[in-house]
Amino acid sequence: MIEIKHLSKRYGEIEAVDDVNFSVEEGEVFCLLGSNGAGKTTIIKILTGLLEATEGTALIDGKEVNDDVNLKKRFGYLPEQPHLYDRLTGYEFLDTMGSLKGVEKNILEKKIDRYSEELELEDRIHSEMGAYSKGMKQKILFINAILHDPPNFILDEPTVGLDPRYAQYMKRKIDEFSKDGKTVLMTTHITSVAEEIADKVGIIGKGKLLVKGPIEDLKTSTGTETLEQTFVEVIRGGKGST
Asked: What's the rounded Cα separation, in Å, for the pair 100 and 128?
């Protein structure tokens, strides 16, 4: 389970995240939907321990993120921007990260081989990552996020940088996670992605969580027929249900 309670992040006079509250239950896919710069990635970075909140609390399975160094084993994280070690091969990176997360060697090797084949990386997995495209790096980081089979997933713009075929693969995997009872928090700026994947959506603008709830409920409360219309209405100041 993932919980965000009265979370705020300020940079001087700028309120990047402003008193945000939401929770994601087991077996649920919750999508933060907002334009670039709305505050989505800031929330994700606080939740993964990469940033400190100015106020409020971020919890994973009931534990505060900054209080438990072992908590990183409880979630898989896919960042929006892939930053990897250029001189390492994809296999070396995944082998190292999987070992640090406590995955047994024989299981780790099988998982790396399996996911590399599924994502058609097997021909490049032993090449240095400095020569990888952004999409290839995104695939490596996704494999890294799922290697240790965590109960929670935090995915920042998971389909960005992928061609349509692998974007569909990503969507199928997210659906599998929720059916297996795992907790999934993801972000996107693409309404069609949120509508296809998410059980619940939170629309965020200028650091504020404007509305949240099941997609059909949000459509009903705003008198709209599509999530795209809902998003536009909410951002423009239309009323929604939280």
From this structure: 20
In degrees and rounded to multiples of 5, residue 33 shows phi and psi of: -110, 125
**What pLDDT digit, counting tens, does each position of 161-219 carry?**
778 888 899 999 999 999 999 999 999 999 999 999 999 999 999 999 999 999 999 99
CA distance 131 to 202: 37
Contact present, 184 and 177 (Cβ < 8 Å): yes
In degrees, rounded to 5, the angle at the alpha carbon of residue 27 between the alpha carbons of residues 157 and 18 is 50
| Helix (H), strand (E) at residue 220 | helix 215-222
Q: Give the count of alpha carbons within 13 A of 60, CB side only.
A: 27
Neighbours of 201 (CB within 10 A): 26
Domain ranges of the chain: 2-84+150-235
CATH top class, domain 2-84+150-235: alpha beta
Beta bridge partners of 202: 32, 212
Residue 28 CA: distances (Å) to CA of 41, 180, 190, 193:
20, 10, 19, 16
Q: What is the pTM of this model?
A: 0.92
Distance CA 34, CA 71 (A): 27
Please name the helix (run of DSSP H) or strand (run of DSSP E) that holds residue 41, with its range, or none: helix 40-47
